[in-house]
Amino acid sequence: MQGSKLVVFRYVFLFIVMIFTSHRLMAAPYSHHNLNAAFISNIQYFQTPETESLSLDQVKSYFQHGKTIHTNHQQLSLGISNKISWVRLSITNPTKKTIIHRLIAGKTWVDQLDIYFEDKNHDITHWHSGDSNVADDYLIPGIGYIFTLDIPPGNTTIYIKAQSLDPMTLPLELFTVPKERSYNAQLHFASGLIYGILLALIGFNLVLYLTLKKQYALYYCLYISCFIIVNISYNGFGFAWLYPNSVFIETYNTLIFMVLHGITGLVFVSNFLSAKKYSPNFYYVIVVFCVSGLVGMTSFIIFNNHMLATHLAFSFIFFSTLLMIFSGIISFRKVEDARYFLIAVLSSMLGLLATTLSVWGVIPYNYYTYNGAVFGVVLEAIILAIIVTIRLRAVEAVRIRTQYLSSYDPLTNLFNRRSFLEFGEPLIQKANHDTIPVCLIMIDIDRFKMINDTYGHYVGDLVLSHIAKLLKNNIRESDILARWGGEEIAILLPKQNINQALVVSEHLRKIIEQTPLIHDGKTISITASFGVSMLEDGDTLEMLFKRADKCLYIAKNQGRNRIAV
């Protein structure tokens, strides 16, 4: 129990360190504005239908006279739709010289992004990007689309046209070049920290699967792997580094692995909670749900319906998490770890819900809500790793107990005959090879049946345990001591000739004779007979035993409580 608490503490401490470190690294650039830097002084936006194409002059006129929305929030999140979003930024440069800044104008999954920078002379500089085109230099993985601006003194205006069938998320931030580079490096470090934790948990479960053949450990590896792929994909790392020229993969990769993440999660849950055994009807509901999601996503990809694929992916991941929670609830009293599993999945669901609602625009978009899915999944992974660790300890305890029972006599805690042969035969072979003396002592408790008949079998067992302790305390560590069977005990003495073995035997005989068992105020005298034999050239352990057993028989016939060689 103490070890389990230590494991829990370590994992919780790891999670707290991850949250604190990633927050310090990733949120640092938002802490304050440099007084000598340009800043966004005003934000307005409006949306038009997909079919309504406006010229830039019409857009300017609309911002002047139309109904627009003013906001002070620099993290716009406008939900999932096919509408065109127009944003106007008023930029103020308080210095007396032109300065270079970097503008973050959209997340990595925005399909079409047009930036119009208008200076004091009304000259327009235009940039076009987005993930419906091949990856370009404007895409900075983990941050979004970034554009370099030469901002003159005073006030200037930027117009942004954005369109996406994925969630419309537009973080609008101005950075100085050094600050942007620092932020980029810090974000990559924080991402590496998070991916490192998840990969370590994958490795742990993979080892668990390969060593103990626990099927749920393999499914959990797939579950976390799908999440990592989803995270890498929607953060733009895949598009920038792996498939920069494939717009089709960029369009559907995140959505496909969102569905696969939900499926592998449900497969893991079903196996982990033995759903097929304890809740067969619900198990088949899960199977139908997973097949439906896979068929639906495949169909939308074949017909290239991005909008429906997006809605399906977000809905599927949401409902799959609900099913995981329901699985934990119905298994609460059937599976020992179900309550901890429920806490883990709730952590994941709340984090996923925060991210989903923030990119949909339902709740405020900020560092914590956007990264909710990451924090939730990492916390879920840590809790599940704790559960698996505790399970592993239980399995290991059973294995150790089973191994002990197969090697030791449970009454006397001495080796059993199987272990005696396992350790003794190699010793005999080595002794024959190196011509080293070895002796075997066979011991039989005198009149043991009389003890059982007089005092009962319980006292007979106490006598055996009593003798075992006496022998164990009066032989060398290198000697092999075992209960041979019944009231017979064997001792193998390596590097001992017959004279030395006789000295040992006489010492043990006297110890047994002079140390009676005291039980319930009664003194029970005990004696034992000894048969001793020495290894001869070419002997096997069986031959050595037969001679020692024959000597033991002679000692018994000569009056007991004596030694025969």
Describe this structure in words.
- The protein is α+β, with helices and mostly antiparallel strands and 565 residues long.
- The chain folds into 3 domains: 33-181, Immunoglobulin-like, CATH 2.60.40.2380; 195-402, no CATH class; 417-564, 2-Layer Sandwich (Alpha-Beta Plaits).
- Helix content is 56%, strand content 19%.
- The protein contains 17 helices and 19 strands.
- It has helices at residues 2-27, 56-65, 177-212, 215-234, 237-241, 247-272, 275-278, 280-302, 306-330, 338-360, 367-370, 372-407, 417-434, 448-455, 457-472, 498-514, 541-557, and strands spanning 39-48, 69-71, 75-77, 84-93, 99-106, 112-118, 124-129, 139-140, 144-151, 154-163, 169-171, 173-176, 438-445, 480-485, 488-494, 517-519, 522-524, 528-534, 563-564.
- Strands 2-1-4-10-6-7 form a 6-stranded antiparallel beta sheet, covered by helices on one side.
- Helix 17 (541-557) links the parallel strand 18 (528-534) and strand 19.
- Helix 4 (215-234) runs antiparallel to helix 6.
- Residues 1-10 and 24-33 have low confidence and may be disordered.
